[in-house]
Predict the 3D structure of the following.
Amino acid sequence: MIRTPRIFVPILVLLALMGALVSCAKHEAEIKVGEFGSLTGSTATFGISSKNGIELFVDNLNAQGGIGGKKIHVLVEDDQSKPEEAATAVNKLIAQDGVVAMLGEVASSRSLAAAPICQNSGVPMISPSSTNPKVTEIGDNIFRVCYIDPFQGMVIAKFAKNTQHFTKGAIFRDNKNDYSVGLANYFTESFKGMGGTIVADEAYSEGDQDFKAQLTNIKGKKPEFIFVPGYYTEVGLIARQARELGITVPLLGGDGWVSERLLEIAQDALNGSYFVNHYWEQDPNPAVQGFVQNYRKRYNSTPDGLAALAYDAAGVLTNALQQLQQSDPKAFETLSGPPNADQKAARAKLRDLIAHTHEYPGVTGKITLDEHRNAVKPAVFLGIKDRAYTFVATVEP
Amino acid sequence: MQEFFQQLANGIAWGSIYALIALGYTMVYGILRLINFAHGDVYMVGAFAAYFLARALGVGTVVSASPLVAAVVLLGSMIVCAALGMLIELLAYRPVRKSSRITALITAIGVSLFLENFGILVFGADPKFFPQVIAPRTITLPGGVLVTNHQITVVLVSLCLMVGLTLFIHRTRTGKAMRAVAFHRDAASLMGINTDITYTFAIGSALAAAAGVLVGLTNPKIEPLMGIMPGIKAFVAAVLGGIGSIPGAMIGGLIMGISEYMVVGYISSTYRDAIAFVILIIVLLIKPAGLLGRNVAEKV
C-alpha cells in the first residue's frame, strides 16, 4: 500500500481554512439568486443564451448601484441538459448557497425536475421559457415569463390552417420530452378542431441520429406539412434527412427551434419552413433594439428568443425585489444577509410581489402574470428563407 | 412496395455502420476474450478526429468537398484511432491481462467512461456540425427509392474494409498469428507467437474510427456521448452473429440495421431500441452461440 506523505495533511487543512476564509469574506451585502441551465449537453445553446441574457441584465443593474445599494449575485449551475442534474443543481443552490430566488430552465423536463424542490423550500422560481403548462402547476412558488403550449399549439394550428390553408398534416414528436409531447398534443387538438386531419404521427427520441425510417412513413402519407415540436439539435438533422428522402413540404416548429445552431446543422434544408418565437430581433421597439445592441456588443452574437426571455425573467425578479425594498425594507434586508430563520417570510413576500407583476415592460412584450402564474403574451411567427429568418406575423393571445 | 425498399435501403446503410463497429468488438473478443466496452467511445473519438482534421484542412472554406479530401480525412482518423487503441491496450488492458476476466471487463467500462468524459471536457458537450467532406447528392434508384451518395459511400467503404480485413486475416502472416492466438493462446505462445497482439486493437479501433467518420458524413451531428447507443447495439450485433466470428459480425450488424428500420416502418418508432434486445434474446434462446458462432468456428 502506498502511504500518503504526512506533509499532505497540513497542506489540506490549510487549504480548507483558506477556502473558509474566502467564503466568509464574501458575505458582504448582496442578494444571492440561483440560476440553473444547460450550459453543456445536447441543448447547450439554450443555457448559454439564457445565462448571457440574465448576466447582461444583472450586470447592468449592478453597474447602476444594484437595488438599494445591494448588488445582485447570480450563482450559475450547469445541469448538462439532463433533468436529474437539474434537480441536483437546484438542491445545491438552495441548501448550500442559500439563494433567495431561482431562475431557470428552458426545457420543460428540466424545469419540472427542479420546480418541486423550489416549491418545497419556499424559494420563488421563475422559468424564462418553459412552455409546458405542468411547470407552474407544481405550486404557487413557480412562475414563468413566457406563453404556454396550449396557446403555442393553437397559434401554429391556426397558422397552418387559416394562413397557409393546409388541411393534411403530419406530426413528428420527441417521445422523451415533456415539451414536445405536450405541444404535439395541443397542436393536434387545435388543428383537428379547425377541421384539419393528422395523417401521420411518428416519434423519435432525443439524441437519435437517424430519422429516415419515420420520415419514409410520413412521406408515404403525403402530408402538406410536417409539424416537428422538438429541439434544434434534432430538428436540423430531421430537416436534412427529410430533404434527402425527397420530402419538399414545409416543416413547422415551436420555440424549441430557437438556436443559432439550427441553421448551421440544417443548412438549406429548412428554407421555406416556419416556427414560433418569443420575440423578433429586428422589432423597431427601442427597448428591443437597445437590448440587441448591448447583447451584440458584449457577446458578439445576436440574442435569440431565449436570451430575451431570460433577460426579462431577471427583470421581473429584480423588479419584485425593488418593490420589496421600497415596501418592506426590513424583509429586503434579511434577504441580503446570511441565511437565517426570517428569510422564509421575506421570500414569501417576494413571491407575492412576483405574482402581482403587472405590465412589466420587457423586451419580449409587456409581462402580466395571470392567476396561474403564467405570462400572457403574443407569439411571433418567423419564416426561414435562404438561411435567414424573416418576420411573418405576431399573434396576440 | 416502394416504401419497403426505401426502408430496406436505409436499413442496409445504417446496418453497415453497426457492422463496422461490431467487427472491432468481435476481433478483440475472439483473440483476447475481452469485451472492449470502450469500443463505442473510440468510434466517437474517430468522428471527432475527422472533424478536427477536416477543419484543419479547411473543408468548406479553403478546400472544397471532394473524394480525395474525404479519403484523407478517413485515413487520418483511422490512424489516430489505431494509435489510441494501442495506447488503451498498453495502459489499461495489458496490466490486467493476467487477472480475472471480470477485472478486464470493469477496466474496459472504466476506459469507456474516461473517454466519454474526456470528450466532454476537451471537445465540449454541445453537438458539433460535421463538415461536409463530400458534397451531398440524392440519387434515385430504380423503383423510386431515394438514397444519398453518402449512404452509398457508407456501404461501399464498409464493404471494402470488411473484405480487406478478411483477406488480411486469411492471407497474411500476421493474420495467421492472430488466428493461432484465437485458437489456442498458450499453444500459440509455445510456438513463438507474440501473444501481446496490440495490432488487434489498432485494427479494431481503426474500423470503429471509420464507422465514426461515416456516421458523421451521413448524420452530421457529433457529440461526445454519441458512441454509447451504437456501441451497445454493435455489441448486440456481434453477439447475435456469434461473437468471435467476422462474417457473423457483418451479418449481425446488417440484421440490426434493417430490423430497426422495419420496426419503425411497420410497428412503432417507440420500440426502435427495444427491438435490438428482443432479437438478441430470441437468437440466444434458439442458438446460444449466435448465428455463426459454432464451437469449432475460427475465432478471430
